[in-house]
Amino acid sequence: MPSYIPLGIRTSYSLLQSSIRISELKNQDQFKEFGIVDQHNMFGTMDYNENLANSGVKPITGCELNLNGKYQILVYCKNQIGYKNLCKIISNSYRDKEPSVYWDDFQNADGLMAIAIPGQICDQDQIQECVKNMEKYFYGNWAVGIKNRDTDEYDACYMSSICSTPIVAIPDIRCMKKEQNQAYHALTCIKNGKYFDEDFNQELHLPSSEEMEELYSDWPTPLENTFLFAKKCSFLLKKKKPELPNFSPIPEGMTEQEYLHHKAFEGLATKVNLEKSSNKQNSKNHINDLETYKKRLEFELGVINKMGFDGYFLIVADFINWAKENGVPVGPGRGSGAGSLVAYCIGITAIDPLNFGLVFERFLNPGRVSMPDFDIDFCPKGRGKVVNYIIDKYGKDNVAHIITFGSLQSKGVLRDVGRILQVPYPVVDRYSKAIPVIQGTNLSLNKFMENNDDLDQEMQQNDGVKKMFELSLKIEGLHRHASIHAAGIVIGKEPLYNYLPLYREHNLTVTQFSLNHIEDAGLVKFDLLGLTALTIISDTEKLVKNNHPDFDINNIPIDDDHTLNIFRNGHTVGIFQFESKGMTEAVVGLKPEVFEDLIAVISLYRPGPMENIPTFIKRKHGVLPINYLFPEMEATLKSTYGVLVYQEQVLEIARNMAGYSMQEADLMRRAIGKKKPEEMKKLKSEFVSRICSQMKSNEEKATELFDQIESFARYAFVKAHATPYALIGYQSAYLKANHPIQFIVSSMILEKNNTEKLAEFIYEGKRMKINTLLPDINKSHEIFTIEGKEIRFGLSAIKNVSINCIKNIIANKPFHNIDDFFKRTSISKKSLENLIKSGAFDSLEKNRALVWEKRNKDYQSPALLFETNEQAEEWDEETKSQYEYEALGIYITGHPLSKLDTRKMNIEWISQRESKEEHITGIGKLEKVISKKSPNGDAYSICIASDPFGIWRFISREKQDSLSKFVNQKICITGEDKAKFIISNTVQSFEQFLLTIEQIIFTIDNKANLLSLYKTIQDDLTQSKGTKVMLHFSQENPIIVGKINLSEDVLNKISEFNWKI
């Protein structure tokens, strides 16, 4: 039996102030009880209550509270009442910038125990005041604590003597073992921005029973009192069933069940117009039987009511419909919730599930009881309005965002530890960048260090690197900071502090429990996601309505040929879900004829099913025959040309061919996904047996069908998720095809701060014959605007032009001339310089060099403003173009490669590439190099380049360092055009490329042509090194006349002649 109970455990939820993981408390075998008192938070309460209780360790729930901003007291929960009171106390404590409680906050301390630590209190007067308040609020339920016997014993005895309060030993515990003290020290250095102290020797480990017995050998009472204290704390936080808030308003005399039934059938009458589909969702599976809809609706309502989710549907429909009525764009739905007809009828989703064969049981299954989960997309600009509506409706005490915890992941922890150890930055940076990211997650340090001979060698030779990795390993995975979940909020039936403790972040109320523990605390999560595609669609729709007031994006035809041509031709820039190179190639190959084809390609274009894309395309185009293992499968697989694409198809096959109910089929699908061998064996046997019985099939054929389903079901996509996404993509394409300038300008406005994406839309507009005009000091607005059939650059997209500068310009325009502008505005020098470089003053003065001089005079002495040289030499076109690029991040009036005739050089503009050949040779200007690591740890680079017609990307196996010298330079690459990306074989400067050209052949038509050529190149001709110069006269073989050192200057000289290489 242990000699004491540790009552002062801080876990890693005391952010960067403890290295103790919950798993370490769970796996130790010395103590069966722990008092956990994280620093002014209860972040880990549900986590450690679940994990420790299940392993036979009793957690004593508490926390360390900052009192009056002066010192701390430890407060523990005796029972459920105490837990609720502590939740309320700590929730209220976040009213100040620095969280703190005051004595008055303990007015209701029922169910709580407390420990006062006198060693933190300055003098005896304060000790007496503390005792007075402890007696007042915790009478009979508090103790005096000794952290360190050497320093605290006198004050503890004095405090205890005032009112005969028991003394408990309560060492400050922040790591499990002595050798982990340095890990704790590293955490505090990271937190406080200090350097690591090798001599740190503060002992904050979990003392063993023997250590404490020795320390208190002459006075065992403080140890014995820990048992008496712990005995009073019987509280264990248990999981609760999620509790929905009451929905209102409901008509008098109606229940939630009755009201949902009423709203669903009311919606059915208006949503599902069976004679004329008002929402134009006419799929190949269109159902025209009213009874079918009614039957499905009654079934869903019955399941919803049986599972107790009527209120959930009403709550979600309420805030979605409020958003629509108040101008906040809402997505058509996503995830399995789109399979609900009730959701469609009451406005939660915008997809008719019967039209598209979507299954309700994939969303709610009576055989699989879990909370429903609608993922709702909103325009990011309006999402906050919806959250505020929910807060106003249900009360600020009843609504909160959800906390998330950032952890010390491998890349970041190396940087943190390297900084506090003062390891040279290049060394830290090299190792941090060397750790690969696999499917969005950093490879762990342990994995990275496995079989890493180079690292082993450096660790042997460099103590700093060795220490950096050793310390990083000890703290990797610990919590680093708290932040807010991007989408989730909770709504409580009662004030949330009755369920869990609350926190404040960025002036928002946030739960102290993370997403995994919200439902266990008795709360329901609602997901409100932000989707920028909705912003573009909404902004475009508003612009279209300027000329077409009745236009409604939700009432567009679903089979518009102009729209489908966007996909067939691969013009997918800006099209939601279809922008990537691989997806574009897939949809071009598919050549969609109906909306269903878009749903299929979204579902197929992901790891696993992707291998079926070629078969799918060939079957669609009749290149391959469509075969069905059983003829009865045709009804299910006809729309996907005999290829299993959706999870819903698996359910349908199980129902129609094996006699499963939809609930059983969904449970089978989930079980297949879990891949448990024993369960799979049982499933397979039952499925084969039922197929043999239902279809009169032999076992071999039935087994083949199960094997097909098993291999597919692990990767299958939910059609209910793909359909709404396909609809958003289709709506984007419809606007682009039918209202192109409105779509492009809306996209540019959204991406004005993302130079790469902005350039992409400007180039795409150019391809569509939509020109982008330079900024104009009198015509430009803050954002991009439509000007006739062109787009005017917005002032806010010019680099280093502040919003205050823009307001100043807009408030004072129009300007009559440059001098008028200088007189009536006051803007920063950097803003002015970039306005000049961008060409914004061209309408007032075409000579930009002259404006540039005026700007210099103005900033040197206002008196000299009007003495500027009016004959300043104009910038040449190349200088203008480069300055525009510096100010705008993109070339508008010209590109450094605009004059190059690639046809003569047998190379191509990759941004306009249509060739199906795999090998490519292309030219561009390298804009950016991004360093990456493969899952195997191999270094590679993603390179972004531009040419006169667009932005393009390629992957190079060369490291960033070797490519960085080419940034902002003209390059030539050779490589392979793969399905998803271009992989370069060589990257060289354009000048280097020119030197590799072996010969240049001029076609000579007449003597004058020959004489002109000779005069042009005579000074560059040589007989030694260089490119052979060959003349080709009609009907004669080319003859060599010399050699020439090819350069850009030479190319410019010979641009008017007829030549090739």
What order do the helices and strands come in, and which of them pair?
Blueprint: H1 22-27, E1 33-39, H2 45-54, E2 58-67, E3 71-77, H3 80-92, E4 112-116, H4 124-138, E5 142-146, H5 149-163, E6 167-169, H6 181-192, H7 209-215, H8 221-231, H9 256-271, H10 290-306, H11 310-325, H12 341-345, E7 375-378, H13 380-394, E8 399-407, H14 410-420, H15 425-434, E9 437-438, E10 441-442, H16 445-449, H17 453-461, H18 463-475, E11 479-491, E12 502-505, E13 508-514, H19 515-518, E14 524-530, H20 532-545, H21 561-568, H22 581-590, H23 595-604, H24 613-620, H25 634-637, H26 647-658, H27 662-674, H28 677-695, H29 699-713, H30 719-738, H31 740-750, H32 755-767, E15 772-773, E16 785-787, E17 790-792, H33 803-812, H34 818-824, H35 829-838, H36 848-860, H37 877-888, E18 919-933, E19 939-947, E20 950-956, H38 960-963, E21 970-977, E22 982-989, H39 990-995, E23 999-1004, H40 1007-1017, E24 1021-1022, E25 1027-1033, E26 1039-1044, H41 1048-1053, E27 1059-1060
Parallel strand pairs: 1-2, 4-5, 5-6, 7-14, 8-13, 15-17, 23-25
Antiparallel strand pairs: 2-3, 3-4, 8-11, 9-10, 11-14, 12-13, 16-17, 18-19, 18-21, 19-20, 21-22, 23-27, 24-26, 25-26
Helix pairs in contact: 4-5, 6-18, 9-10, 11-13, 14-15, 14-18, 17-18, 20-30, 20-31, 21-30, 22-23, 23-30, 26-27, 28-29, 30-31, 31-32, 35-36, 35-37
Pfam families: DNA_pol3_alpha, DNA_pol3_finger, HHH_6, PHP
Domain PHP: 9-123
Catalytic activity: DNA(n) + a 2'-deoxyribonucleoside 5'-triphosphate = DNA(n+1) + diphosphate
